[in-house]
Amino acid sequence: MRLKTAISNNPDANDAIKEIRSSINLTGISAIVCYYTETYSNQNLSSFFSCYFPDIPIIGCSSCNGLMTDKGIHSGTVIGVMAIYDDSKSSAYGTAYVSLKDCIQYDEIVGSAVNEALLKANRVGEVPDFIVLHSTPGNEERIIEAIDAQFGTQVPIIGGTAADNNIVGNWSVSNEHNDSSEALTILVGFLSIPVATSLSVGYSPTEYSGRVTNACGRYIYAIDKMPAKQVYQQWLSEWSGLSILDEYLFDYISEFPIGNVVGHIDNQPYFKLSHPIRITDEDALEMFSESKVGETITLMTGSKAHLIERASRFVKDANIKNYNETEMVGGIIIFCAGSMLHLGKQMREVYEKIISQMNGCPFICPFTFGEQGKLVGGENAHGNLMISSAIFYESEHYL
């Protein structure tokens, strides 16, 4: 396997994809992973991709304010691709797209998408090595549950929720045939080499925690039988020493998210993160991910220095656990848009950390409104302010 990235800043989708095509060799290409900013969300990307990259599985997702590749940080109007060349007899790739408009039966609709992708890969009835998952915001937990149920095991997932620049709905997902602002698209991969996936938290728990006593979906109404807003503000005040008014509360969210305890390893809890969106009229917290009654939640904290450092840790951990650094081929990295906005110009340091750990290998990285992947305990999960990654390695050096 080998990987190659290319970008274009041309605001016209046809011209941009034509420009990308000029730098991508089609010989031996197996699949394309594509990320783009909101400028392209309503430009019928699928038709242009199918024209310039015929009969190639393509998965696409919109990104907030820009994206990263091994060639740099690309801000503003930009579209970027990673071409996957994996034409061995053992490898296969397939995509699927389904509309989520008015969706109620997620098992059924996600199951149809999985079956379509497997059919295109000519691997019906088999379990893929990994799945790239992208959907528009809402119900990511239901989608992951349906994928797990479809296979009866937790296939490694790397995913991100489609994003725009201002949370106004100018997001989309796409494959080689369709694109939409309310849909799900997946890429199943049967690889000729190993892949290491992870969903990294990178924040530390504080001493402040409580039990969710009233919640519905992505709304937390009460923590320890007290209004969720009141408890959250009290935690922030006691931990930071700041008295934060409602109108300034969300200036601190990226530094102090909520951690949902998922499980324990060696009696130590591990978490997925949840990002509050707003305070409701009922003093509830509306979140970007779900919390359930009975769950323990914790105030988490992470300085900018901490967030920058974690950007390389997920690659380092994968190498320590499974491989040697020299065997890396490249990767797909999903980085939270909230963390990106919080770091601002310091994203340059994040880029330099990733480049150093990736040894200059190709990678592509969007900035998303939710991240999906496999936690340290083995569960596939959806969270916020996290990093999801899939790092590919040469098979002959697999330990």
UniProtKB/TrEMBL annotation:
Domain FIST C-domain: from-to ranges: 228-375
Q: What does the record list as coiled-coil region(s)?
A: none
Q: Which InterPro entries match?
A: FIST_C, FIST_domain_N
Q: Which UniProt keywords apply?
A: Kinase, Transferase
Q: Name one GO molecular function term.
A: kinase activity
Judging by the UniProt lineage, the source's domain of life is Bacteria
Q: Which residues form the FIST domain?
A: 27-227
What name is this protein filed under? Histidine kinase
